[in-house]
Design goal:
By secondary structure, the protein is α+β, with helices and mostly antiparallel strands. The protein has 6 helices and 4 strands; from the N terminus they run H-H-E-E-H-H-H-E-E-H.
């Protein structure tokens, strides 16, 4: 006869607390947004002043219509300098913004969102609900979430 354990039935869930961290918990809700009719130089000044790399473009109903980034602004500047053309101060966001925008759901797990960042090579995802812009998730937000997780489980 072998030795029996008298500890009783082991609880397999003990010490493994599952944490569900959602995009809504870490997304930025106070955003710097732009309009399609904004001048590109206004955007450049806002990006520098607020130390951000881009922002959503919305219409008057706060519906997402695009994204403008530092890269979009640099393309305009480099094209005008390359062709030795003066930078037109009337160039608008609508001409240079990206209109095919990937968004993310506020109820998505933050670590699923991390995978979406890796696979898409994006720096930010707008969060839209019922057609309206409600926030934005950046790669830095995912890093903040990772630091806040206690233990090994990132579910």
């Amino acid at each position: 006869m072998g030795i029996k354990s008298f500890q009783g039935k082991r609880d397999t869930t003990q010490g493994k607390e599952e944490t569900h961290i959602l995009v809504a918990d870490y997304m930025t809700k106070k955003l710097i947004t732009f309009k399609a009719e904004d001048r590109l130089y206004h955007v450049i000044n806002q990006l520098i002043a607020h130390k951000i790399s881009g922002g959503p473009v919305v219409n008057d109903k706060n519906e997402l219509i695009g994204i403008i980034s530092e890269t979009d602004c640099i393309k305009h500047i480099s094209e005008s300098k390359y062709y030795n053309m003066p930078s037109d101060t009337n160039n608008t966001v609508g001409k240079y913004m990206v209109t095919d925008v990937d968004t993310i759901d506020k109820n998505m797990n933050i670590f699923d969102a991390a995978f979406k960042f890796i696979s898409s090579r994006r720096r930010r995802f707008p969060v839209v609900e019922n057609g309206k812009l409600i926030g934005q998730l950046s790669q830095k937000d995912v890093l903040k979430a990772a630091i806040s997780v206690k233990g090994n489980t990132w579910k």
